[in-house]
Amino acid sequence: MTTDAEKNKDKGPQDKPVTPKGPKPNTASVEKAPPKQQRRDSYLGWLLLIIVIALVSALGWYGYRYWLPNYQMQTATLEARQQHLENQIESFQEQLDKQQEQTRQHIRQQLDQFSGVLSSHLQEQKQRINDYQQAVQSVQAELAALDISQETDWRILEARNMTDRAAVKLWIDQDPKAALELLKLAESHLAALDNPAHQSARQALADDIMLLRSLPEPKQYDAAMQLNSLYAQLQDANWYQRRASRDSSAESGATTTNWWERLKQRAGTLTDQLVRVQYRDKPVQPMLSDSYIELIQQRTFLQLQLAQQAALTGRQPLYEATIDTALNLLEEAGDPEHKGLQFAHEELTKLRGLTLQPDYPEELKSPAFLNRLANQITAGAAE
After folding, report:
1. I need a surface site. Which of 237, 238, 259, 376 has the fewest CB within 10 A?
2. Is 205 strand, coil or helix?
3. Cβ atoms of residues 375 and 191 within 8 Å
4. How far apart are the C-alpha atoms of 298 and 235, rounded to whole Å?
5. How is the chain split among helix, strand and coil, in percent rounded to 5?
6. pTM of the model
């Protein structure tokens, strides 16, 4: 390859350009880019700008088309959940407030009831304390009027009187509670003396007190009330096993305007008056007449009243005999379960085994010992 200098040598001196003398011009101003290159650079810049705008537009369209709805949907879902949670919290708060108010009201009611019961008990205790104080004051006044040397004799005689009254309350008045209190009072008199010579009498009183405490509660009033309820139930029971009359259906359908229905009702009523129809679910047996069933019913009621009176008076043999008679009458009248007689039979069977009064002891130990002490005192006073 040949360079520009070689080319210039080949041309000769005649072809050498003549440069003017003087200062050289500025190369920056002289050397300019060609117009095609400038135009290409401008196109490239505009192209980059368009690409950037297109990317920004695509990103904005994508965000608006896909991301923004999802964001709005998620935001709406979160707001709905938050609103639902707030509603639930409000409902729970309302329920909690209501429950707290109900609890407060229930506690107030319980406190009011308890305060009423407590006040009544306190009033009763105050009344008892006042009665005891009056009794103690009266006893103290009597003791003050007596000579101190006569205190022992008076307490022994008083204890004997208490045991005698306890025996009367137990066997005549049939009141074991009153007898128990009298024996306790007699034992308190001997305990106040604190004399070893009275140990056997105190032991006899303790045995009698323990014996009366072990007696069961009487069932007289319970049996009488149950018999009264059973009497009322049997009065409402159907003893005849008879189909319901057509009169009731005629009364219920009295407002009908159909002449054919009224004619059938009249015919049914006439049939009920002339023909009696009875039903039995058990094997066929000779049917009892209405008059005989009515007689059995009245006799059963009479036996129940006699059993109730025997229960109130505490007569155990008469009570059991009358209940046995009532059970036999119920069995004779028939036993349809759907009419309530079976239930009455079962209840009477239970009441038959009920003990009205406990078996009281034949005698008490303490009266003999206290009579012996009292006889010693009276014998010494006679001497």
Report:
1. 259
2. helix
3. no
4. 10
5. 80, 0, 20
6. 0.39
Phi, psi dihedrals of residue 23, rounded to the nearest 5° = -70, 140
Question: Smallest Cα–Cα separation from 161: which of 365, 362, 366, 360?
Answer: 366
Helices 176-193 and 199-213, interaxial angle, to 10°?
A: 160
Residue owning tokens 């305060």 = 115
Q: For 172-198, where are the alpha helices, taking DSSP H only?
A: 176-193
CB 220 within 8 A of CB 357: yes
Q: Compute the average pLDDT of residues 2-23.
A: 45
Spatial CA neighbour of 264 closest among 274, 275, 255, 253: 253
Which tens digit of pLDDT belongs to each residue from 282-323?
A: 555 555 666 777 888 888 889 888 888 888 887 888 888 998
Q: Give burial (CB, 10 Å; 0-12/13-18/19+) of 310.
A: buried
3-state class (DSSP) for residue 278: strand
Q: Which residue in 326, 324, 322, 312 sits closest to 356, CA to CA?
A: 312
Tokens representing 186?
A: 């007699």
The strand pairing partners of 278, in sequence order, are: 242
In sequence order, the β-bridge partners of residue 242 are 278
- The DSSP letter of residue 214 is T
Burial of 199 (C-beta count, 10 Å sphere; 0-12/13-18/19+)? exposed
User: What does the CA dihedral 216, 220, 222, 227 come to, rounded to 10 degrees?
Assistant: 140
- Comparing CA positions, the residue from 155, 143, 149, 146 lying closest to residue 373 is 155
